[in-house]
Amino acid sequence: MNSDDQINNNKKHILILENRKQLNVSGVKDVSEFDDGKVIITTLNGLLTVDGEGLHINNFSQQTGELDLEGRVHSLIYNDEQAREGNIFSRLFK
């Protein structure tokens, strides 16, 4: 087990959805894809797909694993598959 795995094992994955308009997620490793209708987040518990309308990431810190998102949330779906290699930001700024 490497040091990243040890750090991740000590963190919690918490999801708070307020009025289907404000989503706060902890235990986030990466954001692999996003647009105003879908956000795919790699969490400590697998991939989380957020479907909705007018979705906007207000804040994402890879150091703290915190993500704040707003918009109209229609669904939250977990999937244990791995995200595509590299996050959206690393692919944009290559």
Quick summary of this structure?
It contains 2 helices and 6 strands; from the N terminus they run H-E-E-E-E-E-E-H. The protein has helices at 3-10, 88-92, and strands at residues 15-18, 22-25, 28-34, 38-43, 46-61, 66-79.
Report on the architecture of this protein.
14% of the residues lie in helices and 54% in strands. With 94 residues, it is mainly beta. The protein has one domain (3-81): Sandwich (Immunoglobulin-like), CATH 2.60.40.2000. Strands 1-2-6-5-4-3 form a six-stranded antiparallel sheet, with no helix packed on it. The longest helix has 8 residues, at 3-10. The mean pLDDT is 84.
Secondary-structure blueprint:
Elements: H1 3-10, E1 15-18, E2 22-25, E3 28-34, E4 38-43, E5 46-61, E6 66-79, H2 88-92
Descriptive labels:
mainly beta; single chain; 94 residues; Immunoglobulin-like; 14% helix; globular; six-stranded antiparallel sheet
